[in-house]
Design a protein that fits this description.
Layout lengths: L11 H7 L25 H21 L20 H10 L7 H6 L2 H10 L3 E6 L3 E7 L5 E7 L7 H16 L3 H9 L3 E8 L11 H23 L10 H7 L3 E2 L8 E8 L14 H26 L15 H13 L5 E6 L11 E4 L4 H10 L16
Antiparallel strand pairs: 1-2, 2-3, 4-6, 4-7, 5-6, 7-8
Length: 392
């Protein structure tokens, strides 16, 4: 049934809202005209269907709406909008956290999101004038995800659009919105995340003293990796000034429960480097690469030492960035986390080509060799003892 409407009296204020140019998604005026002839009314089943549709849309919009922001129609979808509605809501109810803070969403910069999307396999499909860009991703299972990314944070509906972007990424990546937000706003940094076992972290929290010691020890591993980046040697009497300058720009990232907790240190990627060295790759990334290489070498040599019965596998590992100082810092981490395996996840900044690996594990059985090497490093000519030093 079609109804023709000649004119509709619209208030000036509503007219101005409808013609707001400072939006990406236009507002639409919906007018429902109820015929005077009762025979032309819809049957009850049709009316209930319409009310059900309106209720679903209103509920969906309200759940994603930011505080003090009017809701707008759904515009970002997963390519399966016709899917079963109950299944859609069962997934939404399973989500642990939804970011609604207006100021947080407003502070996200579109270039940060674009960098994140490009680094994670999304392809820009088209542009909508100078207002938004459309991104798509197809998964191995054949699912298709669409994202509408606003290009200016000044748009009135920018926070809602960004909220939708994060929600869509949550569905595509099966990760929490908090994790995704952290990766987006820290896309200019390499992130090093240390997993703290549940035995040390009660309900995602730690004793303040343990937390400080653990952060300090993890920070020290990066300090000695920075020293090794400048000059490979088995022991450093003191840290280099350039390494200390690098240490001064490290930041503490978001601490998340996992169910223990995760401590994150961010190593920003700067456009300049410290000192007079002219690196093709920024010094900040060089340090993290050295750090990864050294930890892999330590894990391998410690495992090998268990079979040889001595520390001979560590001979020459200083060429890979290993030092007694680094081993001492790792040994302190072992002591704090109760001699559990050290598990570290890496999120490489998409500002530079993404490196590998994304995870490092040093098993708990490696602690004996690492602690012994750390103690030897305090002795003069300690490298000569590597073949002789037996592992108890």
């Amino acid at each position: 049934m079609y109804l023709e409407i000649g004119r509709y009296p619209l208030r000036v204020i509503d007219y101005e809202r409808l013609r707001d140019d400072n939006r990406v998604i236009p507002l639409i005026l919906v007018v429902i005209l109820v015929p005077e002839n009762v025979e032309q009314w819809w049957h009850q089943s049709e009316m209930l269907w319409l009310l059900d549709v309106i209720t679903r849309i209103a509920r969906d919009r309200k759940s994603r709406d930011c505080d003090s922001i009017r809701a707008t129609p759904k515009f970002v979808h997963s390519g399966r909008y016709e899917e079963d509605y109950a299944a859609h809501w069962s997934r939404r109810n399973a989500m642990k956290a939804v970011i609604r803070d207006f100021d947080v969403l407003k502070a996200i910069e579109p270039p940060q999101v674009a960098t994140y999307l490009q680094a994670n396999g999304w392809n820009q499909q088209s542009m909508i004038a100078d207002r938004a860009s459309v991104w798509i991703q197809k998964t191995d299972s054949g699912d298709k995800f669409d994202i509408l990314l606003p290009l200016k944070s000044e748009f009135t509906d920018f926070p809602i659009l960004i909220s939708q972007v994060i929600e869509n990424l949550e569905s595509a990546e099966d990760r929490s919105q908090l994790e995704i937000l952290s990766d987006i706003i820290n896309s200019d940094s390499d992130a090093i995340a240390l997993r703290v076992p549940p035995t040390l972290a009660d309900k995602g929290t730690m004793l303040l003293a343990d937390n400080i010691d653990l952060i300090q020890s993890l920070r020290d591993t990066l300090l000695w990796a920075a020293c090794a980046t400048l000059k490979r040697q088995a022991y450093f009497p003191e840290p280099a000034g350039e390494a200390l300058a690098y240490l001064g720009q490290l930041r503490l990232g978001l601490t998340r429960p996992y169910p223990g907790c995760i401590l994150t240190i961010l190593s920003p990627i700067s456009s300049t480097h410290h000192g007079a060295h002219n690196y093709m790759i920024p010094f900040d990334r060089q340090v993290v690469k050295t750090w990864v290489q050294a930890l892999k070498a330590i894990a391998w040599a410690a495992e090998k030492s268990l079979s040889t019965g001595n520390l001979s596998p560590f001979v020459g590992t200083e060429k890979q960035g290993v030092s007694a100082n680094l081993c001492a810092a790792i040994a302190r981490i072992y002591d704090i986390i109760g001699n559990n395996s050290i598990e570290i996840n890496l999120t490489w900044s998409p500002m530079l080509p993404v490196e590998k690996p994304r995870q490092l594990i040093i098993p708990d059985r490696a602690i004996r060799a690492i602690a012994l090497l750390a103690n030897l490093g305090l002795q003069e000519n300690w490298q000569r003892s590597l073949h002789k030093e037996a592992i108890a």
